[in-house]
């Protein structure tokens, strides 16, 4: 499909897209690469325009240069916007508590942290998309599968069996991405082995070592 046809189809699709003012968006096409320019009323509208362009047959890629302008609302300061974003994430039951941190710079919200499932990462983006004052979202939230307590314990026991006299004296508890070690060991090296084994399990971000030495 030639570029002229692709451009016209993108324009037509934008015209019919809900929540998009196609008159404010410019479209150019070169070798199947669509460049969107102009301005929109909010970040959600910007996302819709990008998705519309991507679903047109013949589009190889989209370069998005759309500016977000809020004609009816004064622009929020970054501090106020960051506070509003944080509150929205706290209220969203789909997002694990304290799993995501954010920073705001000139209306651009950068998200970091980790969640167990991809739909939770998507929920973070979706929760902020329609928020007044947001001009862009950079979602760097990692998706880390839930830690399996049995896997963590098996790794620790396997490591200890190679050198410890009685690995059954160590108790392993997993709380989210944190591993808690309790019990006793015969020598200091066994404690180090237990810690190392706990840290080697996928998804572990903290290890609380409450092991004691047997005297």
UniProtKB/TrEMBL annotation:
GO terms for molecular function: transaminase activity. Residues 2-70, 77-145, 148-215 form the BON domain. It holds the Pfam family BON. Keywords: Aminotransferase, Transferase. Transmembrane segments: none annotated. PANTHER family: BON DOMAIN-CONTAINING PROTEIN. This is Ornithine aminotransferase.
């Amino acid at each position: 499909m030639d570029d002229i046809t692709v451009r016209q189809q993108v324009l037509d699709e934008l015209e019919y897209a809900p929540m998009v003012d196609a008159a404010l968006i410019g479209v150019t096409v070169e070798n199947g690469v669509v460049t969107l320019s102009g301005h929109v009323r909010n970040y959600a509208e910007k996302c819709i325009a990008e998705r519309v362009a991507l679903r047109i047959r013949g589009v190889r890629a989209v370069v998005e240069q759309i500016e977000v302008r809020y004609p009816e609302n004064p622009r929020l300061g970054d501090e106020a916007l960051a506070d509003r974003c944080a509150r929205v994430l706290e209220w969203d039951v789909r997002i694990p508590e304290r799993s995501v941190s954010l920073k705001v710079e000139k209306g651009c919200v950068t998200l970091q942290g980790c969640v167990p499932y991809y739909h939770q990462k998507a929920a973070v983006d979706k929760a902020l998309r329609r928020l007044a004052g947001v001009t862009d979202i950079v979602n760097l939230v990692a998706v880390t599968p839930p830690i399996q307590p049995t896997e963590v314990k098996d790794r620790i026991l396997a490591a200890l069996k190679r050198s410890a006299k009685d690995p059954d004296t160590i108790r392993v508890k997993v709380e989210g991405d944190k591993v808690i070690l309790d019990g006793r060991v015969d020598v200091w090296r066994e404690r180090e082995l237990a810690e190392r084994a706990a840290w080697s399990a996928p998804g572990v971000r903290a290890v609380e070592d409450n092991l004691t030495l047997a005297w």
